């Protein structure tokens, strides 16, 4: 047996050709087979959807024949005269053998007759060898039986061209063969001529039976051409081909890429000429599908075409050229045919296994398209081209660039969604394959959820962003405004499906062991999860490792930008380096910092292009609204939220199904709320504010549902930032906090409750964390304080939950005590260092190590002090508001003494001998405003000045209380216009009461218990000048009622109108009190001096 490799190849080629010929001959029966028998009634022709690839077929001639050839009835009924229909020409007969020979010759561009080839200048190829083999036939013509031999003989001619031929008669044939034509190009030309022949045939008025027979010939010829086309796409080397040409799948790819209306110069110059027009591609693909899909050969025929298209080199340029548009257009054409769409998801490259995350977007079929984007890390040239030099670039140019890039991204993502949607709808198997692709992309990128992630170990931000956008688009159909499809989501999905890997995920309020036990206890699912459920949970997972982490990257860039900006301000602010040897080095440092700042700005803008794209923002807000509503419905005992709205607080028993959910479901809702309020608050004008508020209130009123204290603190941050107004942005939540029924009812107690809860978080940083949360709470309180309904809620809480309210007050006093002590102490230390450094000569004489230590200490104190002062100011302000609204909780024994001691101590620090220690330079730098702080502390005294227990507590404070402090404070307040004259008078009367209280205490020591009738009923001090109130007939001390009437012109006992002139002196009682006092041993107390001489706050001056 010959072992010549060429002979072996020929044998293999001939076997495959024979297989094709057999397939072609069996694809359609010979039209002549039915000519001898009486034809059966023709079947109704299938409805063919007209396409641009071929002219719309004319109506079936047989139908026309039936309508026009019917015989007239013998006795027609009389009918009204109508306009005569136009005459229809009688069908003509078709000489089928002659037509068959001519059509096959024209389509395949071959002939058996030498004279015809000569007449065409051998443009029509003379098949001499085939003609010689058919010499014995009656007629030397091509027909449906012989045409299957044409293509092998034609390509034998092509093969003969490669070798010398001694047949001089055949030399013109060889010379006329196209020199660079590939087999695929020849077959496509045949296919086009076939379509033209079919169109011509349909326009002719032939006898229907003969026309159908002719159509059968064309169908058989089409099968033959398409069969060979499929073979050359799979194994182009089986045929003789011109050297140096791209063969097989590469020949079809240009036609697919040329479908884009914006095919750039790359497509036109770097690819071969397209063989198929845009109007022909779909029909050509459909013919391939009809031929190869039934035999399950479509993967081998078009699979390589899809692979070459998806990995086309033009994609490496990103948005710098329009190659990506061409690839997308080609894919859109392919997936528009369902069998091709289904085939794509069967390819090995669709969802490659065992590929690490960084390589997945390079190895997976659609990875290169999903990796397109604008983020600086993956596509640095975009940021540099469009956003560098921002200080000199016109703002309008940056705005225009942003709009243009967003338009490009939207086009890409919209097209990708159409492609993926077609895949999902192609078949059940392809839908599952798409879900598996999404799940693998998510599962292999779990590292992206970490705090510190090496970008080289995970997929790119662009890939994850595009993936998430696709999933958000898939979610849109079930995210309607009424949440009508929400209940179709399987709440036990994590028990019924392992598609999403949760093995390393933290749960909301359960351990992984508890979650696994819960999963095992769930009844088996009745069927696979529906598509809505799958997409919903995949979107949740993709969002956690996608957009949320990309936002973190943007915020990190912003932080770096701010650091460099401050560094530049420092360098530019200190000009001492000019004219020194360090000038060149400093200028180089400034230029380097400016270049880095510009690069960071460009990178930020590139992120903003995508993250701030309006449609993405709208979709994400809609999804976050949906998720937050779904989670609230999950915990709603009625499972009906938001129709009707959930009732708060939630039950104490937390459902296990909720506890085992991944924590990122809660985290991502909160994080996106924080992001959108800061970056695009106006986007919430249409929707999202109500959902945000209800979400926050739900879990602030029921904090036991969430285990992580940091997540609960971030809910407070959402409300806190939601009350900000800056620049052109109005606050997002302020109006809603003051109008929404749930806020009016639940916000005040929820904030107080969290103020208490944050005292103990269990974290190592809990001491500092609590101050951050309480600062936010204090700000929210101030925002809503002018709303009477919120203040009523405060009073209700104080009256009906007194134990909790007292605990809240206690913690507030603890905070004020600590923060003011720390801040004032640190300010004194700063004062000392500043004074030391002010004497430059002395300070410079100190050792360098000493100077460095003092300077470092100063910087440390400055950082801490600013924070402590701000927190202290906020808490004192809160104390001022609360004592002005409700007093009783501050008068309980465990509170009042500590409150009085704290106030007295800080009053001493602000106006006593130590106040000079607080005189620091640049007080604004530390947010220290001693006048405002003094005013707030005095206001607390004034708010509680009518409470006897408070006066008694102040009087009992032997460490810090001195009436001289109040006299000094009143003088400052008067001079600086911190308080009105009435307020200063009220403060004077309070100090009088404090002094009298001290005297009362001393009297009790001297004389024992004082009779109750001698004690003022409000202040519990011994009355100096008792008076009777005219309407209530209650006896009080004149100074007590005078102080009361300064702020309230009604009788405190029956709320009737009252003025100081109306009171009635009780002379008899005064005489008895004076007699009682004369028996004391100590005669040098407040009762032994006139009231006006006790405290000197002369408000008549100034």
From TrEMBL:
<keyword id="KW-0963">Cytoplasm</keyword>
<comment type="pathway">
    <text>Protein modification; protein ubiquitination.</text>
</comment>
<dbReference type="InterPro" id="IPR045132">
    <property type="entry name" value="UBE4"/>
</dbReference>
<dbReference type="InterPro" id="IPR013083">
    <property type="entry name" value="Znf_RING/FYVE/PHD"/>
</dbReference>
<dbReference type="GO" id="GO:0006511">
    <property type="term" value="P:ubiquitin-dependent protein catabolic process"/>
</dbReference>
<keyword id="KW-0175">Coiled coil</keyword>
<feature type="domain" description="U-box">
    <location>
        <begin position="1009"/>
        <end position="1083"/>
    </location>
</feature>
<dbReference type="InterPro" id="IPR003613">
    <property type="entry name" value="Ubox_domain"/>
</dbReference>
<keyword id="KW-0539">Nucleus</keyword>
<keyword id="KW-0808">Transferase</keyword>
<comment type="similarity">
    <text>Belongs to the ubiquitin conjugation factor E4 family.</text>
</comment>
<dbReference type="InterPro" id="IPR019474">
    <property type="entry name" value="Ub_conjug_fac_E4_core"/>
</dbReference>
<dbReference type="Pfam" id="PF04564">
    <property type="entry name" value="U-box"/>
</dbReference>
<keyword id="KW-0833">Ubl conjugation pathway</keyword>
<protein>
    <recommendedName>
        <fullName>RING-type E3 ubiquitin transferase</fullName>
        <ecNumber>2.3.2.27</ecNumber>
    </recommendedName>
</protein>
<dbReference type="GO" id="GO:0000151">
    <property type="term" value="C:ubiquitin ligase complex"/>
</dbReference>
<feature type="coiled-coil region">
    <location>
        <begin position="547"/>
        <end position="574"/>
    </location>
</feature>
<dbReference type="GO" id="GO:0000209">
    <property type="term" value="P:protein polyubiquitination"/>
</dbReference>
<dbReference type="GO" id="GO:0005634">
    <property type="term" value="C:nucleus"/>
</dbReference>
<dbReference type="Pfam" id="PF10408">
    <property type="entry name" value="Ufd2P_core"/>
</dbReference>
<dbReference type="GO" id="GO:0036503">
    <property type="term" value="P:ERAD pathway"/>
</dbReference>
<feature type="region of interest" description="Disordered">
    <location>
        <begin position="1"/>
        <end position="86"/>
    </location>
</feature>
<dbReference type="GO" id="GO:0005737">
    <property type="term" value="C:cytoplasm"/>
</dbReference>
<feature type="compositionally biased region" description="Low complexity">
    <location>
        <begin position="23"/>
        <end position="38"/>
    </location>
</feature>
<dbReference type="GO" id="GO:0034450">
    <property type="term" value="F:ubiquitin-ubiquitin ligase activity"/>
</dbReference>
<feature type="compositionally biased region" description="Pro residues">
    <location>
        <begin position="39"/>
        <end position="60"/>
    </location>
</feature>
């Amino acid at each position: 047996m010959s072992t010549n490799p060429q002979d072996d190849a020929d044998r293999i080629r001939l076997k495959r050709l024979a297989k094709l010929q057999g397939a072609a001959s069996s694809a359609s029966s010979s039209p002549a087979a039915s000519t001898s028998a009486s034809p059966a009634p023709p079947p109704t022709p299938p409805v063919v959807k007209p396409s641009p690839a071929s002219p719309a077929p004319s109506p079936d001639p047989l139908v026309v024949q039936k309508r026009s050839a019917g015989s007239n009835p013998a006795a027609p009924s009389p009918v009204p005269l109508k306009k005569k229909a136009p005459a229809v020409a009688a069908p003509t007969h078709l000489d089928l053998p002659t037509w068959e020979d001519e059509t096959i010759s024209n389509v395949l561009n071959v002939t058996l007759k030498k004279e015809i080839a000569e007449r065409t200048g051998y443009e029509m190829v003379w098949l001499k060898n085939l003609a010689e083999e058919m010499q014995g036939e009656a007629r030397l013509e091509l027909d449906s039986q012989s045409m299957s031999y044409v293509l092998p003989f034609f390509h034998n001619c092509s093969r003969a061209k490669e070798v010398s031929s001694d047949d001089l008669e055949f030399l013109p044939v060889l010379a006329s063969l196209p020199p660079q034509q590939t087999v695929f190009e020849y077959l496509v030309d045949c296919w086009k001529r076939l379509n033209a022949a079919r169109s011509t045939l349909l326009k002719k008025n032939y006898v229907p039976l003969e026309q159908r027979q002719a159509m059968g010939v064309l169908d058989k010829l089409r099968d033959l051409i398409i069969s060979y086309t499929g073979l050359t796409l799979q194994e182009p080397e089986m045929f003789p081909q011109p050297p140096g040409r791209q063969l097989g799948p590469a020949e079809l790819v240009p036609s697919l890429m040329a479908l884009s209306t914006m095919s750039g110069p790359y497509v036109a110059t770097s690819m071969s000429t397209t063989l198929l027009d845009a109007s022909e591609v779909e029909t050509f693909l459909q013919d391939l599908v009809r031929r190869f899909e039934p035999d399950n050969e479509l993967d081998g025929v078009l699979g390589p075409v899809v692979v070459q298209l998806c990995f086309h080199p033009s994609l490496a340029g990103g948005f710098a050229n329009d190659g990506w548009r061409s690839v997308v257009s080609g894919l859109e054409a392919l997936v528009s045919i369902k069998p091709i769409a289904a085939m794509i998801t069967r390819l090995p490259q669709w969802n490659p296994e065992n590929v690490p995350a960084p390589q997945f977007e390079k190895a997976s079929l659609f990875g290169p398209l999903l990796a397109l984007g604008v983020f600086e890390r993956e596509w640095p040239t975009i940021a540099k081209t469009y956003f560098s030099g921002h200080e000199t670039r016109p703002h309008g140019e940056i705005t225009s660039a942003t709009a243009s890039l967003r338009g490009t991204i939207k086009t890409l993502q919209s097209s990708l969604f159409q492609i993926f949607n077609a895949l999902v709808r192609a078949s059940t198997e392809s839908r599952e394959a798409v879900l598996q692709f999404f799940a693998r992309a998510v599962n292999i990128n779990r590292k992206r959820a970490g705090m510190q992630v090496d970008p080289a170990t995970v997929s790119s931000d662009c890939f994850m962003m595009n993936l998430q956008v696709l999933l958000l688009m898939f979610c849109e159909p079930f995210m309607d405004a009424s949440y009508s499809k929400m209940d179709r989501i399987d709440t036990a999905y994590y028990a019924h499906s392992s598609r999403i890997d949760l093995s390393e995920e933290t749960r909301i309020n359960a351990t992984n062991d508890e979650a696994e036990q819960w999963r095992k206890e769930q009844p088996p699912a009745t069927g696979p999860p529906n598509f809505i459920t799958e997409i919903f949970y995949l979107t949740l997972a993709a969002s956690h490792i996608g957009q949320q982490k990309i936002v973190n990257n943007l915020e990190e860039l912003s932080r770096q930008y701010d650091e460099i900006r401050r560094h530049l301000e420092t360098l530019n602010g200190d000009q001492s380096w000019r004219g020194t040897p360090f000038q060149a080095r400093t200028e180089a440092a400034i230029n380097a910092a400016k270049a880095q700042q510009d690069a960071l700005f460009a990178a930020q803008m590139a992120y903003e292009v995508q993250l701030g794209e309006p449609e993405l923002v709208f979709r994400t807000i809609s999804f976050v609204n949906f998720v937050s509503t779904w989670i609230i419905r999950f915990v709603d005992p009625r499972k009906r939220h938001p129709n009707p709205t959930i009732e708060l607080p939630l039950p104490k028993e937390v459902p296990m199904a909720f506890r085992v959910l991944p924590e990122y479901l809660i985290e991502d809702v909160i994080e996106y709320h924080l992001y959108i309020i800061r970056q695009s608050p106006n986007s919430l004008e249409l929707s999202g504010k109500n959902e945000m508020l209800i979400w926050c209130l739900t879990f602030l009123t029921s904090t036991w549902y969430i285990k992580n204290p940091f997540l609960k603190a971030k809910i407070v941050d959402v409300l806190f930032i939601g009350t900000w107004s800056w620049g052109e942005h109005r606050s997002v939540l302020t109006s809603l906090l003051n109008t929404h029924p749930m806020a009016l009812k639940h916000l005040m107690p929820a904030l107080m409750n969290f103020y208490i809860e944050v005292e103990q978080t269990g974290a190592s940083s809990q001491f500092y964390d609590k101050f951050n949360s309480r600062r936010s709470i204090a700000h929210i309180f101030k925002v809503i304080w002018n709303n009477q309904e919120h203040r009523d809620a405060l009073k209700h809480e104080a009256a009906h939950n007194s134990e909790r309210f007292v605990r809240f007050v206690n913690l507030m006093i603890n905070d004020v005590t600590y923060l003011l002590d720390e801040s004032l102490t640190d300010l004194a230390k700063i004062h000392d260092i500043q004074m030391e450094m002010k004497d430059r000569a002395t300070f410079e004489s100190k050792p360098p190590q000493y100077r460095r230590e003092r300077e470092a200490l100063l910087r440390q104190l400055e950082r801490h002090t600013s924070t402590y002062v701000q927190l202290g100011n906020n808490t004192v302000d809160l104390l001022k508001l609360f004592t002005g609204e409700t007093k009783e909780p501050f008068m309980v024994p465990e509170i009042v003494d500590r409150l009085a001691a704290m106030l007295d101590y800080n009053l001493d620090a602000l106006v006593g001998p130590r106040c000079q220690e607080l005189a620091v330079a640049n007080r604004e730098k530390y947010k220290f405003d001693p006048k405002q702080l003094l005013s707030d502390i005095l206001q607390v005294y004034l708010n509680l000045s009518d409470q006897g227990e408070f006066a008694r507590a102040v009087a009992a404070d032997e460490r810090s209380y001195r009436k001289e402090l109040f006299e000094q404070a009143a003088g400052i307040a008067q001079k600086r216009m911190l308080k009105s004259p009435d307020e200063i008078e009220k403060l004077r009367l309070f100090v009088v009461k404090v002094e009298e209280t001290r005297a009362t205490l001393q009297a009790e020591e001297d004389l024992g218990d004082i009779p109750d009738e001698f004690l003022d009923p409000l202040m519990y001090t011994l009355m100096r000048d008792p008076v009777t109130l005219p309407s209530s007939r209650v006896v009080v001390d004149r100074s007590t009622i005078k102080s009361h009437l300064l702020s309230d012109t009604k009788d405190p006992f029956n709320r009737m109108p009252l003025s100081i002139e109306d009171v009635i002196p009780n002379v008899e009682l005064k005489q008895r009190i004076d007699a009682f006092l004369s028996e004391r041993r100590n005669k040098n107390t407040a009762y032994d001096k006139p009231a006006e001489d006790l405290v000197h706050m002369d408000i008549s001056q100034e």
